[in-house]
Amino acid sequence: MKHFLILSVAALVVALPFIFHRPPPQGDWRPGDPVLIIVTPHNEAIRQEFAEAFSAWHQEHYGRPVRVDWRAIGGTTEIMRYLTSEYAASAKRFFKSQKVDWPPNGAEIIFGKPPPPSPHSHTTGRAPTT
Fold it and tell me: Which stretch of DSSP H or E encloses residue 36?
């Protein structure tokens, strides 16, 4: 009897999330409405709250809701690496499409006053870019 009670409680604990699971609200978003892509280190609760509030705000101001497409690729360091590689790849594609040679190290000269250091510039080993 004691084992049956323990197994019943364990089964109930495993089943509760499935019993009380609510599907995410669909809202008024339809295909063709805007999609906002956000890269974030934040948890699901923050992402859901922001997405619902921003979509409601956009609906109120522009007449169409927004679907937020979250990209949770890790913490701040991983996000900085991802954005750095995306911007570098985009610049390289642009230069090659203009028939301009891409320097092997990305840039040969950076001209102008550098921006103030960001708290994350030490993680990439590069000067911060804005």
Answer: strand 35-39
CA distances from 17 to 8, 21, 25, 68, 73 (A): 15, 6, 17, 25, 25
Neighbours of 117 (CB within 10 A): 10
pLDDT in tens, 45-85: 999 999 989 988 998 999 888 888 888 888 888 888 888 88
Predicted structure pTM score = 0.52
DSSP letters spanning 68-112? EEEE--SSHHHHHHHHHHHHHHHHHHHHHHTT-PPPTTS-S---S
Segment holding 37, helix H or strand E: strand 35-39
Q: How far apart are CA 18 and CA 15, in angstroms?
A: 5
